[in-house]
TrEMBL record:
This is Tautomerase family protein. Pfam families: Tautomerase_2.
Length: 129
């Protein structure tokens, strides 16, 4: 149940937005083995004056933040980074313009299925990938 957010500083047509969201979804499926249709991805477009980026980055600078359950291996995380960067590159975004940050709150900090801690719920999938 990763929660992904893509933040950019320039406007894109709807088909490009959908392409970026699909790229993150497919990367999550491949690298983290998330269940099919576990798709919680937001796309946030900022005005350039509201999103400062390093001078070495282009107008295509793209920030991806993923909040996910803990338990994935470093190898799975590496694969996730590469999957996202490779898929974004196919959409015209230079790998050097991509920053990915993972957040892994403990399962007890997730309220699911009517307000139960995720640590007390059968998630239905493995976290040890």
């Amino acid at each position: 149940m990763p929660l992904a957010k893509i933040e950019v500083r320039r406007s894109r047509p709807p088909e490009e937005v959908q392409g970026l969201m699909e790229a993150v979804y497919q990367a999550l499926r491949t690298a983290l083995k998330v269940p099919q249709d576990d798709r919680q991805i937001r796309y946030v477009e900022h005005r350039p004056e509201h999103f400062s980026v390093p001078a070495t980055k282009s107008e295509n600078y793209t920030y991806v933040e993923i909040v996910m359950f803990p338990g994935r291996s470093l190898a799975a995380k590496r694969q996730l980074y590469q999957e996202i960067v490779t898929r974004f590159q196919a959409l015209g975004i230079d790998p050097q313009d991509v920053l990915i940050v993972l957040q892994e709150p403990p399962l007890s900090n997730w309220g699911l299925q009517g307000g139960q801690p995720a640590s007390e719920v059968d998630l239905g999938f493995e976290l040890d990938v």
